[in-house]
Design brief:
The longest helix is centred in the N-terminal third of the chain and has 34 residues. This protein is mainly alpha-helical. Helix 4 crosses helix 5, helix 13 packs parallel to helix 16 and helix 14 runs antiparallel to helix 16. The protein starts with a helix and ends with a helix. The chain has 16 helices and 4 strands. It is about 65% helix and about 5% strand. Strands 1-2-4-3 form a 4-stranded mixed beta sheet, sandwiched between helices. Strand 3 and strand 4 form a beta hairpin.
């Protein structure tokens, strides 16, 4: 009945409600998957037999509670986000904000012909609205959930300072890039989509190149890895696979979170490696207890009794046992990361991204002249280029984006297995096996996953699958 009524409506109405219908369909699908995984969290209360030797009951229970809290939070924040987006569309929030932007530039003496200026004001207002409405959720996630489970290291003052800095840096990048993109589209003629694609390609390559050197240091402290055994071993491993390593940094991630990470960046002969201090067992400040004693985990396996040193600082936060990996395990993790480079995963991802970007700009060039698309979202008298980008890329392309996202997730899992196998070829299978266990524990990852949820969401294979693969490797 509802579908028949929709089919009888105008094309603009069909487009509008089709977008809403698809958006809620995706939301309900995601909610169903989350329900399946939340059921796993609730019902799997004991360590499975195959995990008995690598995960103690206390850590298992902590990870279960952490993931359950995150899942519940995700449900409510997702419902709010979907409801907010629906109300914005139904109440004409986008054309309203566009008109407000026009009014503001009009007061500054600019007319309707200054579309790019109006677009920039629209962007500032839209991102400001998003930041303000998302702030309570971010505060709750950081100072309730992450704090409760011992991950948050931020003070309230640091949080707000960081949020303001992120907003300002985002505007400094977003506004000039957007203004140039809109200008290129306007003057590019029939082949503007080629020029727009080339421009975004250059911008993305520049941002990747300068991010760790000029942008990331605005938020975190980067220091060169001190000379010593670890640095020598990393440089030796890089030379063995012809990785053009120039610098190794340690980033002070511990001032905001106890989660750990490692990555590399750079093009051509100028590669750098970045290690989070929380990844390094001998460096992480989170291993310093109030009594000055080291705690916890041995190099190869979590302790069977699950004993833990509580009250590791004056705020009585719940802390994990000894944080991070030893030097050999760090090398194994880097062997995995460098495997992505050696196997061409980074280049393949860039190629896929740019082919997709070109296709999207090409389709955008075809669709931008369709007045019905603008009318469907309340723009009856004008067709602003920025609004066209928003409508087509975010709404019209949403079914394609969902399919592409799933395909990239599947590809990512394949790449992860290949990178693990590469680390094995470097003789790091045993150390990577232990490192994965430690990192899972440090980040309170839950090792049991619903098959459908993990298939749709996990860009990395579940822990047990990776351990089984490495165990087969070791047996071989």
């Amino acid at each position: 009945m509802v579908l028949q009524h929709l089919l009888e409506q105008s094309l603009e109405t069909k487009i509008f409600y089709s977008v809403l219908l698809f958006s809620w369909t995706v939301y309900l699908w995601e909610a169903y998957l989350a329900y399946r995984q939340r059921k796993i969290y609730r019902t799997t209360t004991h360590v499975p037999s195959e995990l008995g030797k690598i995960m103690d009951p206390e850590t298992f229970e902590k990870s279960r509670q952490y993931q359950l809290d995150k899942s519940t939070f995700s449900f409510w924040s997702g419902l709010y986000s979907e409801t907010e987006g629906t109300l914005i569309l139904l109440w004409g929030g986008i054309p309203f904000l566009w008109n407000v932007s026009g009014h503001l530039i009009g007061r500054a003496g600019f007319g309707q012909e200054y579309e790019i200026s109006q677009s920039l004001v629209f962007l500032v207002l839209a991102t400001l609205f998003s930041a303000v409405t998302g702030l309570p959720w971010s505060l709750y996630n950081t100072f309730v959930i992450e704090e409760k489970h011992g991950f948050n290291q931020q003070t309230l003052g640091f949080f707000f300072k960081d949020a303001i800095k992120k907003f300002l840096v985002t505007q400094c990048i977003l506004l000039p890039v957007t203004s140039l993109l809109l200008y290129i589209i306007k003057i590019g003629g029939d082949y503007f989509f080629i020029y727009a694609w080339l421009f975004t390609l250059v911008v993305s390559l520049v941002l990747v190149t300068i991010y760790a050197d000029y942008i990331a240091p605005l938020f975190d402290k980067f220091t060169p890895l001190p000379d010593g055994e670890l640095k020598n071993n990393i440089e030796e491993m890089a030379r063995s696979i012809d990785f053009p390593l120039t610098k190794i940094y340690v980033v002070e991630g511990s001032k905001r979170s106890s989660h750990s990470n490692a990555y590399f960046y750079g093009f051509f002969k100028n590669k750098r490696i970045v290690l989070f201090d929380t990844l390094l067992e001998d460096v992480s400040p989170l291993n310093s207890s109030s009594t000055g004693e080291g705690t916890g985990l041995e190099a190869e396996r979590p302790p069977a009794d699950g004993s833990e040193n509580e009250d590791m600082d004056n705020s009585h936060k719940v802390k994990n046992k000894k944080q991070g990996c030893n030097n050999e395990e760090v090398l194994a993790v880097l062997g995995h990361e460098l495997g992505h480079w050696k196997l061409g995963h980074t280049v393949k991802n860039i190629v896929i991204s740019q082919v997709n970007s070109f296709l999207c700009f090409f389709l955008f060039a075809i669709l931008i002249g369709q007045k019905e698309l603008f009318s469907a979202f309340g723009f009856h008298d004008s067709q602003p280029t920025l609004i066209g980008l928003l409508i087509i890329f975010q709404f019209i392309f949403s079914p394609y984006n969902e399919v592409l996202s799933f395909c990239l997730t599947v590809l990512s899992r394949r790449f992860e297995f290949q990178a693990d196998a590469f680390a094995k070829q470097l003789g790091k299978a045993e150390d990577l096996y232990c490192a994965l266990i430690k990192l899972n524990k440090d980040n309170l990852g839950f090792p049991v996953a619903d098959w459908l949820f993990s298939m749709w969401h996990y860009s990395h294979p579940p822990l047990l699958e990776r351990l089984r693969a490495l165990k087969v490797i070791k047996q071989d």
